[in-house]
Design a protein that fits this description.
This protein is an alpha/beta fold. The chain is about 35% helix and about 10% strand.
Length: about 150
């Protein structure tokens, strides 16, 4: 019987790790809300791997605002895909980085919108978000989701 192959991480998406995880667009900046964003619905990484960040999307996938406008710009799509690749390839590293970033003074009392596009993918990702939220009680979080059966 041949020896078992060692565990290997998924192939890298050749996307850089985001320097900053949370962003603000003009509208959210005006009200003091920060965003964490994944790509909207389904797509393909540059290396050919496919993803679906909204597994419970039904008819809303046809009219999703995050599949139009600035979300389709190449640099915006690349940023969102880099966020997703970080989550998929190194979830513990992402959780650590998000917790650390939220420790910055500017986030005390701030509001974080989890996903202005995308949704809670696998259970491990949701669990990581819950750990981040517990670790940063001085920060306010909210999310819209279609993942209600968990």
């Amino acid at each position: 019987m041949p020896p078992a192959e060692p565990h290997r991480p998924p192939p890298a998406a050749n996307l850089p790790r985001p320097a900053r995880l949370l962003t603000q667009n003009r509208e959210m900046r005006a009200i003091g809300v920060w965003n964490w964003t994944l790509p909207a619905w389904a797509g393909r990484f540059p290396d050919g791997r496919t993803y679906n960040t909204c597994p419970s999307a039904g008819v809303c996938s046809q009219v999703c605002y995050a599949r139009h406008g600035t979300y389709t710009w190449p640099q915006v799509r690349a940023k969102h895909q880099a966020n997703l690749a970080f989550v998929l390839e190194d979830l513990p590293g992402w959780e650590h980085a998000m917790t650390a970033e939220l420790g910055a003074r500017r986030f005390r009392g701030a509001w974080i919108r989890i996903h202005d596009s995308g949704d809670f993918l696998p259970d491990a990702y949701l669990t990581s978000w819950l750990a981040v939220i517990r670790a940063r009680p001085e920060v306010n979080f909210y999310a819209y989701t279609k993942e209600i059966r968990r």
